[in-house]
């Protein structure tokens, strides 16, 4: 660092190119230095100076120290903007794919922090000192909560489905209704995952109607069939002229034909969501009871845990999945496993409201409304005009599609250009706030606010409105 550039000029005068240390010392980089650190910032400065040299060789004038520093500062902002940050979700979508699906809450965060800071007894039995089974507590808890004989946890549900099909049906036919050949988003398409697993897809029925007789005929024509796969239609809804066999009838057919009934259940509800007025998201227990031999689901959808996938069902079949070489490649990481165990412990203890997803889905509408009224009152005291409005949120995460989640929120009205400015200030503030911008209003749905977020949200709105 330090030498003014004089060599290799190719004719252009590079002597005016600022020195690295002078750019670093410029006041416009003070904040970036604190947030990114000197080493990272130095790399950005060197890169900016290289670009400046190229530009000067191309005939551009030499930039000043100030100009280079401003360019680096803008670049640093963009770099920081790509880093995952804690945000306030005021969209009303409880399981927001772009916001990491289920938030984990304070209880799980404490367990995570304790474990992350040190070593963890993840594969040791502390009572005997001998090697223990990774994930044993989570798997036993899932059995207890679902009524299944055995379970296995993996990296996500896509991994669970891949492993289940690969271990139990590779090289053989698997029968799937054409109405269930779904795409979940993010590249998960049932036919493609099936092809990768080595199982052969046999399509039956039609997009809107598949009858039990369609499955029976397909099994007649495919003597090598290993299984019927039933896939949850979570992220879309078919209405009108539609038909799908009863789960129990399909299980009976599978038993009669001596093939397995495998299920991709999607969400993995532990509690009955029907009792909360949310239909179309059957619980894991109800799937096991209806006769699925193996059920796969995500642990970060309606279950409300960290990213993960679970395979639950008949002990011999889960054992075959566990023995498959892919199981090691797809295993759940240490920190998500710790988070999953803490989440499942809360279910076992009946402490549903410490699971933020459950708290958001269970919150009575009257309490949601009262929360919106408190925020509106607080804003009014600070001179910010808003109104309390009735809203329809969503469960999200491919669950309860099209079924609005009744909610309340606070609405800000503003002119078009001003609206965009306020929304941007909210996004780039600290903490960033993500509301819904709709029909000339900014809507803050309070159902998806976590404990302790009311005050920071209110402060963020006030500062975004006042500029
Ligand atoms: C969400 C979903 C998946 C993918 O689960 P991930 O945990 O995101 O990998 C697969 N199948 C169904 C039916 C789903 O809803």
TrEMBL record:
The keyword Protein biosynthesis applies. Its EC number is 2.9.1.1. Pathway: Aminoacyl-tRNA biosynthesis; selenocysteinyl-tRNA(Sec) biosynthesis; selenocysteinyl-tRNA(Sec) from L-seryl-tRNA(Sec) (bacterial route): step 1/1. One of its GO terms (molecular function) is L-seryl-tRNA(Sec) selenium transferase activity. It is found in: Cytoplasm. Signal peptide: none annotated. It catalyses: L-seryl-tRNA(Sec) + selenophosphate + H(+) = L-selenocysteinyl-tRNA(Sec) + phosphate. InterPro entries: PyrdxlP-dep_Trfase (IPR015424), PyrdxlP-dep_Trfase_major (IPR015421), SelA-like (IPR018319), SelA_trans (IPR004534), SelA_trans_N_dom (IPR025862). Residues 14-53 form the L-seryl-tRNA selenium transferase N-terminal domain. It comes from the Bacteria. Keywords: Cytoplasm, Protein biosynthesis, Pyridoxal phosphate, Selenium, Transferase. Its main location: cytoplasm. SUPFAM superfamilies: PLP-dependent transferases. One of its GO terms (cellular component) is cytoplasm. The modification N6-(pyridoxal phosphate)lysine is found at residue 301. Belongs to the SelA family. NCBIfam families: selA. This is L-seryl-tRNA(Sec) selenium transferase. The gene is selA.
């Amino acid at each position: 660092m330090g030498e003014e550039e004089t060599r290799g000029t190719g004719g252009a005068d590079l002597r005016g190119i600022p020195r690295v240390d002078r750019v670093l010392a410029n006041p416009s980089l003070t904040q970036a230095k604190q947030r990114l650190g000197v080493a990272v910032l130095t790399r950005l400065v060197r890169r900016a100076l290289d670009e400046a040299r190229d530009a000067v060789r191309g005939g551009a004038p030499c930039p000043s120290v100030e100009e280079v520093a401003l360019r680096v500062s803008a670049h640093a902002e963009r770099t920081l903007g790509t880093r995952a940050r804690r945000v306030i979700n005021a969209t009303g979508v409880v399981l927001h794919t772009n916001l990491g699906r289920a938030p984990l809450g304070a209880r799980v965060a404490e367990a995570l922090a304790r474990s992350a800071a040190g070593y963890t007894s993840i594969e040791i039995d502390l009572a005997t000192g001998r090697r223990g089974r990774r994930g044993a507590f989570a798997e036993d808890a899932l059995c207890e909560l679902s009524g299944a004989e055995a379970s296995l946890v993996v990296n996500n549900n896509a991994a669970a489905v891949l492993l289940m099909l690969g271990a139990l049906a590779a090289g053989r036919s698997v029968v799937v209704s054409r109405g269930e050949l779904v795409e979940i988003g993010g590249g998960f398409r049932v036919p493609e995952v099936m092809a990768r697993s080595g199982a052969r897809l046999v399509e039956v029925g039609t997009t809107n109607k598949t009858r039990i007789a369609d499955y029976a005929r397909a099994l007649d024509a495919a003597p090598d069939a290993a299984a019927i796969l039933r896939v949850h239609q979570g992220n879309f809804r078919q209405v009108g002229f539609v038909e799908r066999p009863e789960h129990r009838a399909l299980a009976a057919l599978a038993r009669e034909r001596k093939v397995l009934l495998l299920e991709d259940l999607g969400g993995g509800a532990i509690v009955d969501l029907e009792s909360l007025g949310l239909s179309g998201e059957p619980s894991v227990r109800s799937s096991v009871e209806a006769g699925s031999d193996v059920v796969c689901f995500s642990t970060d959808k309606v279950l409300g845990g960290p990213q993960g996938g679970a395979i639950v069902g008949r002990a011999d079949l889960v054992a075959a999945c566990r023995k498959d070489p892919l199981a090691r490649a797809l295993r759940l990481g240490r920190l998500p496993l710790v988070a999953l165990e803490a989440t499942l412990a809360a279910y076992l203890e009946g402490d549903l409201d410490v699971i933020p997803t459950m708290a958001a889905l269970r919150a009575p509408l009257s309490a949601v409304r009262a929360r919106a009224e408190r925020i509106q009152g607080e804003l009014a005291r600070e001179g910010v005009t808003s109104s309390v409005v009735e809203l329809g949120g969503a469960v999200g995460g491919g669950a309860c599609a099209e079924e609005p989640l009744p909610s309340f929120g606070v609405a800000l009205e503003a002119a078009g250009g001003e609206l965009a400015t306020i929304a941007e200030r909210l996004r780039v503030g600290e903490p960033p706030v993500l509301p819904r911008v709709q029909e000339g209003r900014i809507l803050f749905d309070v159902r998806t606010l976590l404990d302790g977020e009311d005050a920071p949200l209110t402060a963020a709105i006030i500062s975004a409105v006042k500029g």
